[in-house]
Fold this sequence. Notes:
The complex is a heterodimer.
Chain A: E1 3-4, E2 8-11, E3 17-23, E4 34-38, E5 45-49, E6 53-54, E7 62-67, E8 72-77, E9 86-93, E10 97-99, E11 103-107
Parallel strand pairs in A: 2-11
Antiparallel strand pairs in A: 1-3, 3-8, 4-5, 4-9, 5-6, 7-8, 9-10, 9-11
Chain B: E1 3-7, E2 10-12, E3 18-25, E4 33-39, E5 45-51, E6 58-60, E7 68-73, E8 78-83, E9 92-99, E10 105-107, E11 111-115
Parallel strand pairs in B: 2-11
Antiparallel strand pairs in B: 1-3, 3-8, 4-5, 4-9, 5-6, 7-8, 9-10, 9-11
Amino acid sequence: FMLTQPHSVSESPGKTVTISCTRSSGNIASNYVQWYQQRPGSSPTTMIYEDNQRASGVPDRFSGSIDTSSNSASLTISGLKTEDEADYYCQSYDSLWVFGGGTKLTVL
Amino acid sequence: QVQLVESGGGLVKPGGSLRLSCAASGFTFSDDYMSWIRQAPGKGLEWISYISSSGNTIFYADSVKGRFTISRDNAKNSLYLQMNSLRAEDTALYYCVRRSSSWTLYWGQGTLVTVSS
């Protein structure tokens, strides 16, 4: 299966943005979805695991959810800060691990 | 804290081989699945392979199957990736990644592999 994300999104500081991740086949609820943040020049870090669990140290401005009707997962970031500007990747699995293509978030 | 330190990257000619290593510390290495994930310059993340805690379960992405071999030494807290028949499209930053008991991934800093004549 594949995971499809928008190539880029942009929003203003203080606003809320949602990044989608659509699974091409198989039920999105069958396997957990994770979200990773990668700032320029840095390794990725886990933001959300197991669909909606925030990793240690991740502010509650970040939340994850899944929607079985659209077979997709979403990462929502509220109260946007300039430091949130980064690439975001969704990831899931069956016997193999699969990453989405990544979404570049611009906070302007 | 969790530390994953990759080594072994470098410049290699097409068709050549390279062996990557990852030294792990700060957690019980033998408890966790480990993986290699790569990122070509300016591109997204690509999962390559994972190995179970005991080493009994291994999977590869189609792009590397038959050319790459993942292994681990739990006594040495180390993960390895033997890469053979390297191609230009294997050029990437290779990350050593730990999957904790929950689906939380921890990433190393990566080691750069460049395949070029």
